[in-house]
Amino acid sequence: MRKPADLLGLTGLSMQAHMEVNGNREAVVEGCGGVLEYDETVVRVRTPGHVVRFTGRGLTIRCLTADALVVTGYITGIEFMG
Amino acid sequence: MISLRLTRWLIGYVRFSVLGGSPERFYSFCARSGAYLWDIAAGRSGGACVAARRYRLLRAPARRAGCRLRVRERRGLPFLLRRTGRHPGLWAGAAVFALIVSVLSRQVWCIRVTGNASVPVSGVEQALASAGLSQGAWKSAVEPQKTAQQVMLKFPQIRWMSINLKGSAAEVVIQEKTAKPPIENRKNLCNIKASATGQIVSMKVYAGTPMVQKGDAVVEGQLLVSAVVVDKLGGNTLTHASAEVVAETTRSLSVKIDRKRQKTVPTGKTVYRRNLDLFGARLPVSFQGKPRGNYRVSREKFGLSLFGTPLPAGLYQERWDEVRTVDYTLAKDQARALAKRELAGQEKKLLNGGRVTGEKITENWAGGTLVYSAKLTCQENIAKESEIFLK
């Protein structure tokens, strides 16, 4: 028996952010709520449940829309902060 | 990625710097306001790109984040059109260019002939030109099927021909006929007579009645095989006599070589005349006229092609070499070698498949002339058809 939250996730109606990481070079965050910190070594992004922190070298926000963001560069760490 | 870049270029975009305040807040406000940013650079000299028509919408987020924006670059088609709009000459040039391209693309500029073996390309091109297909002809005026038929009438050795117009190029594909072998006419009546005097070495009679046999001596014109055939009942029938009669014959050949000769040698003075072939027009590149005097001329054409397709441009060059006539004398060995070569050519023509079994050479040097004579003993087919005419 699946939980209601899982069912929402399956239908794409989840309140959680959806994140795709391609190797350590690119991360796509869907459902982000804004950029909190941005420089070449740290990118901190607000998402509905957490604050996600990307660390690395030469980080760049490739594109930014109302609910999505693409971070590229040499990503060395991803942290989920409450 | 290319389509994305092309779309951005077509709609036009602005690259700007974000100065002071909180760039992160500015980017977040922009995102919430619906402005799509890309290539966002971090740091104090950071900035981003935005579609040109959205740039004005960024003022409010910048004010809220305490930032100032400064445009660094304007790129894309709208800005290009705005810049060039002040120069009517550019628009006129573009219009003229489009017109020229449009007009030139309605004409045939390249004619490529393929598949021909015995039919010369220049001949085909001349025939095509007289049928209306030449460099510079209007494509609408060319009727491929009719043109192909007209050319085929001029060249009976062409079995099949196709003219394909591809863009401004005409590809002429030719397939030639396979030549029919000659058919021997055996309906007429004929005797076999001797074409030369000699002694018969071998005889092969295919039709007719042999009148001589192996070992017999025959003279030129003597009847060898008769067309009259007598059957077992004593009846006579006439036939087309056929035979191969090999006889040993004697032939005398003589070659006269004059040792004093003349030849033309270049003086070293060379004149080049060059023309530029462009869209069927020949434009002189060098202003050198035709030189006067004793010159030998050679012509070359250097055509340009792109991916195997000839272009309507090339260089035509004439090379004029001044020559003078010089007298010289052949050495004895050279004269002898030349005489031998000429004699061998005469032998080949005279014997027509026969062979030389012996030869006796005599040389006579009289003044500046060599008379080189050969008495040949040969074995050759002396059978010659002699037609009989009946009323």
Overview of the structural elements:
The complex is a heterodimer of chains A (82) and B (391). Chain A is mainly β. Chain A has a single domain (15-81), classed as Immunoglobulin-like (Sandwich), CATH 2.60.40.2000. Chain A has one helix and six strands; from the N terminus they run αββββββ. Chain A has a six-stranded antiparallel β-sheet with strand order 1-2-6-5-4-3, with no helix packed on it. The model of chain A is unreliable at 5-13 (pLDDT under 50). Chain B has 391 residues and is of the alpha+beta class. Chain B folds into four domains: 2-81, Alpha-Beta Plaits, CATH 3.30.70; 110-176, Roll (Ubiquitin-like (UB roll)); 255-260 and 329-382, no CATH class; 261-327, no CATH class. In chain B, the strands form six sheets. Chain B has a five-stranded antiparallel β-sheet, with helices on one face. Chain B has a four-stranded antiparallel β-sheet with strand order 2-3-1-4. In chain B, a hairpin with a 6-residue loop joins strand 2 and strand 3 (47-51). In chain B, helix 2 packs antiparallel against helix 3. Chain B is elongated and about 135 Å long. The model of chain B has no long low-confidence stretch (mean pLDDT 89). The chains are: A mainly beta (82), B alpha+beta (391). At the A-B interface, strand 3 and strand 5 of A face helix 2 and strand 2 of B.
